[in-house]
Design a protein that fits this description.
Layout (H helix, E strand, L loop, with lengths): L7 E3 L5 E2 L15 E3 L2 H11 L27 H7 L8 E5 L6 H14 L4 E5 L4 H11 L6 E5 L3 H10 L4 E5 L16 H18 L3 E5 L12 H5 L2 E6 L6 E9 L7 E7 L2 E4 L17 E8 L2 E13 L6 E4 L3 H14 L7 E7 L11 H13 L7 E3 L2 E2 L5 E2 L4 H10 L4 E4 L10 E4 L7 H4 L2
Length: 449
């Protein structure tokens, strides 16, 4: 008798193996391998085979430029993250933790476009049409051009797409949709991969933009195979605490624009709306205490003023190091540098660092503010409310310039600050008094000015 051939597939990333393994060598997930049935194996083999075509390469100089015209989603922050608006024939994936505002944002966008005369299809496999109607009443997104479809079968969804001339489709969520032609359970790797491929084909052939919502795992990544993120055109993630009113929408992949921009939203009784102003969102200038310092970071092309908080307390055992919104490895580097350059006995102190407002610092421009906050807490002396710290701290103790210094200083001018501590003065004259400090050893002379 012929020996039965087995095939196992990781349900976290889609990696396939001829034998069962406890840990996936591709993504590191434990006990995620499931044996595929004979029907599933035959489906995968038939899916990979495609008829040969007589395709010929074309010189790039002879390829015609493909022009596409973006259209606004009705949300300035979402348009900013998408690169200027929604692109026809694009497939956009939005992920985030439960309750962060994925469905709320897309239903709000659907309502805005429907009120402008566009036909929008909202497909939900998790909620009934009545539940979505209640949310639409709260968001004021009701319109006769907004169509709801409570369906999880892909074939039924495709029939509905062909029945009307829709301008935008929203799938909530990709893990709840299944295809009757795929011999696998709903939400499995094979189902999600096949459905995403079919949606991508529909989006390109019908010039139809499709937004899909994806659940995330405990690690914070989109649930399902990593190929899901590779197949779509744009990947957006919601960041922030679901208990806070502020939400950050960050782009991690965008074939039609930059991934440097970040959209900032605020949750209120009317749903998830664009944040009107970032002034005083992440700091409180009137209540700066010992251990607090101000800095300004760049989120894409937008300067944002933040407050850095540090607590240095005497340790009664092994010293603790904890950070929220800041890289813990970089904090360890800064503490070692301060201990060597300034002879501070920080090895016997607990050090805690927090970035106020739930925002995460992903650049080095706030290093100098971290140093100032630690020294302020260590000496129990409050810093000036009018001082802002900008600069990168190196391992040699040098304070270096950061990109877009002039844009940061101009933002400080508009918010009424009087002085800034930085490694070099901007070329253009400003109304702010600049204190130039290029060494960590000399920072003590200026931080309490």
């Amino acid at each position: 008798m012929a020996k039965k051939k087995s095939l196992f597939e990781c349900q976290s990333c889609g990696f396939q193996s001829a034998k069962w393994m406890g840990k996936c060598p591709n993504c590191g997930a434990w006990e995620s391998f499931v044996e595929l049935s004979k029907e599933q194996i035959d489906f995968l083999k038939s899916d990979t085979k495609s008829p040969l075509t007589n395709s010929k390469a074309t010189p790039i100089t002879e390829v015609e430029d493909e022009e596409f015209e973006r259209f606004s989603s009705g949300s300035k922050e979402l348009d900013l993250v998408l690169g200027g608006g929604i692109v026809p024939a694009s497939l956009v994936l939005i992920g985030g933790s439960p309750g962060i505002g994925k469905s709320t944002l897309l239903l709000k966008v659907a309502g805005n476009l429907a009120k402008n005369g566009e036909k929008i299809l909202y497909v939900s496999g998790e909620e009934s049409a009545g539940q979505i109607k209640l949310r639409a009443n709260r968001l004021r997104a009701n319109s006769k051009n907004l169509f709801l479809l409570n369906e999880i079968a892909l074939e039924e969804i495709l029939l509905e797409l062909k029945s009307k001339d829709y301008q935008l489709v929203i799938i909530d969520s990709i893990q709840t949709i299944y295809s009757q032609e795929v011999p696998s359970a709903p939400a499995s790797v094979t189902q999600v991969r096949s459905i995403t491929f079919e949606l991508m084909r529909v989006a390109k052939s019908m010039k139809l933009p499709i937004f899909i919502i994806g659940h995330i795992t405990k690690e914070g990544s989109i649930a399902g195979p990593r190929v899901l993120e590779h197949m779509v055109d744009t990947v957006l993630y919601f960041e922030g605490d679901s208990n806070s009113e502020l939400r950050l929408l960050r782009g991690f992949k965008n074939r039609f624009g930059s991934t440097n921009e970040v959209g900032i939203f605020e949750m209120n009784r009317d749903g998830l709306n664009d944040a009107k102003s970032m002034t005083s969102r992440f700091f409180n200038k009137d209540f700066l205490q010992a251990g607090s310092a101000l800095s300004i970071i760049m989120e894409g092309s937008r300067p944002i003023l933040i407050e850095v908080e540090a607590l240095v307390a005497e340790s009664f055992g092994h010293p603790k190091r904890s950070t929220t919104g800041y890289d813990s490895n970089r904090l360890s580097m800064i503490l070692a540098l301060l201990e060597k350059k300034l002879d501070l006995p920080l090895s016997t102190y607990d050090v805690f660092v927090n970035i106020s407002g739930g925002i995460r610092v992903n650049e080095t421009g706030a290093d100098l503010a971290i140093v100032a906050a630690i020294l302020s807490s260590f000496r129990d002396r409050a810093l000036s409310k009018e001082s802002v710290f900008i600069g990168e701290v190196s391992l040699t103790g040098e304070i270096r310039d950061v990109p877009n210094t002039l844009s940061r200083v101009k933002e400080l001018e508009t918010q009424g600050f009087k002085r800034v501590v930085l490694p070099s003065k901007p070329i253009e004259s400003s109304q702010i008094k600049c204190f130039v400090v290029n060494e960590v050893a000399k920072i003590v002379e200026w931080i309490f000015v």
